[in-house]
C-alpha cells in the first residue's frame, strides 16, 4: 500500500484514551445491547454525544496510566460524511435522513427517533422535573437540558465557527449559523407561503403563523404565543424587571434581544438586506414591510404601490369618489369637515 492510501485509511481512525482495558470492555459490550421491549438497539448516552464539544484531554485526575488504542470508524453514512465505529450508532444516525421515529408515546401522538428522547417527552406528561439549577431555580426533566442551561450562567460557548468569530453554547445553534450565514442553504420550505429556512425548528415555529397554534401560555393572564422567547419577554412585564441596560443612553429592557435591537440605533448596523435593491434595515420587520413594495399591492389607475391592502383601498377612492359635494377617502377627514358645520372645537389648548 502506498503512502497516500495509508493516509486515507488513517483518516477513518480515531485515537481514544482509556484508563485501563477492563474499564472499556463493559462499555463496548453494552454498545450493541438490545432493549427488553423489542429489537430496537440500546442507545447508551443518547442525546449527550450529539451536543458535546470534542474534548482535548481527560480532566479527571487519576493515578492509573492512560492506555492508547485506535478505533476504526468503518461504518459510513451514505447520505453525509458521518462515520462511526458502531453499527448501532449508524442505524440511529440514519433516522435523521429517513425520518423514522420508532419510539411512540402511549399518551399522545408524539414519536421519536431515539428512546431517550421519548423518555424526556414522557416527563412532560408526569410533570416531573428532577434536575434543578442552583443559580436560578430552573427545573428540567433531564440532565442534558440542565447542562445546556447552566451555560447561560457561566457564559461558556464551546462551539466555534471556523469562518468567523461566532461561538455558541449548543452545537445545534452553530449548525444553524453555518447554514444560514455561510453556506446559504435553506432546505426547509413552508408549503403555505414558500418561506424557507436553514433548520427544521424554525420552520415548525413559522408554521404556527398559519395554524394559529400558540402553545406557550402565561399563567398570570390570558396571553399566549407561538414562541417561547415571546412568552419570556411577556413574563418580564409581570415581574417589572429590566436587567438589560444600554451603556450609551441608559435605555433598559426586560430581555437581551430587545437590547440588541436597540443598540443598532447607536451603531447604525442594518443587517437585514433586500435582495432586489440596495435597501437595508436594522429590524427584520422593516425589511419584510419593504419587500412588499416589490411584490405588494398596486393601483391599476396610476401605478401607486403600497405594502398594505387597506392603504390601497383608501387610495382607490380618490379615483372613484364623487367630487360634486364634499367627500373624503379617510373617515377622520370627514369628521373634521363635519366639525366646520357644527362649530364643534374638540381640540383646545391646555
Mean pLDDT, to the nearest integer, reads 74
Helix % is: 40-55%
Unreliable segments of 5+ consecutive residues: 1-11, 14-45, 47-52, 54-62
CA distance, first residue to last residue: 95 Å
Estimated share of beta-strand residues: 5-15%
- Supply the helix-strand structural class: alpha+beta
Strand count? 20
> Helical stretch count?
12
**Judging from the principal axes of the Cα atoms, what is the shape?**
extended
The biggest sheet amounts to: 2 strands, antiparallel
Computed CA radius of gyration, to the nearest angstrom: 29 Å
Q: Which strand order do you get reading across the main beta sheet?
A: 1-2
Protein name: Zinc finger protein 525-like
Organism: Branchiostoma floridae (Florida lancelet)
GO biological process, one term: regulation of transcription by RNA polymerase II
Subcellular location: Nucleus
Characterization of this structure:
The protein has 350 residues and is of the alpha+beta class. It is 40% helix and 14% strand. The chain contains twelve helices and 20 strands. The strands form ten sheets. The protein has a two-stranded antiparallel ribbon with strand order 1-2. Strand 17 and strand 18 form a beta hairpin. The chain is extended, with a radius of gyration of 29 Å. The N and C termini lie far apart (95 Å). The relative contact order is 0.04. One of its GO terms (biological process) is regulation of transcription by RNA polymerase II. Keywords: DNA-binding, Metal-binding, Nucleus, Repeat, Zinc, Zinc-finger. It is found in: Nucleus. InterPro entries: Znf_C2H2_sf, Znf_C2H2_type.
